[in-house]
Predict the structure.
Amino acid sequence: ACRLSIYRSMHSTEPYKDFLNQGHAKPIDYVISLFDRYDVVVLCERMHPEASQWDFIYDLVSDQRFIDRVGRVFTEYGQVGKQDYLNGFMATDSLDTAGIDERVIHIIRYFPVWPAWTNTNFYTYLKRLYKLNQTLPPDKRIRHHFTDSPTGWSELGTAEEYQAYRRTLGD
C-alpha cells in the first residue's frame, strides 16, 4: 500500500501539468485579467517557507498593469501593529542597503507567530518591493497591507506565556 501511495502522489500533479500545457495565458497575464472581473483577487499560498511564490507575487506587483490598475497587496504575513512602520518605510526615499535591511529585519522580528523566522522569502520580497517603489512616483507606489494578528512580544517573557499566546491563535 505504501508504494501505491507514493506512486499516486508522484502523479497527482499530472492533470494540472496537462492543463498548463494546453497553451493557456501566462500566469501573470491570467491574474491581471481577473481584475477585469473582480475587485479582489486572492492568491492561495503554498507552504510559508516556499520562495518561488514570493517571486511570482513580486513579478505580479511589478507588472505595469498591476501598478496602474491595482496597486495594493494584502497578505497574512506581517502583523497589523506594524502597518504604520511599513508605510513609513515604503515612503522613505533613498535608503541605502543597510537602512533597507534594518527596516525589513525590524518587521520580520515582529512576526506574530514565530519568534525566529529563518526563511528569507518575505524578507527578500519586502526589499524588492521597496526598491521597486523607489522607481515609481509616490502616487503609483505599491501599498502592502499586513493582516496577521498583533503580537506583544515584550509581554511574552517565558515559554509558558508564549505557549498561552499560541493557544489564543488556535494553533
Summary: The mean pLDDT is 87. The two ends are 31 Å apart (CA to CA). Residues 113 and 166 are 7 Å apart (CA to CA).
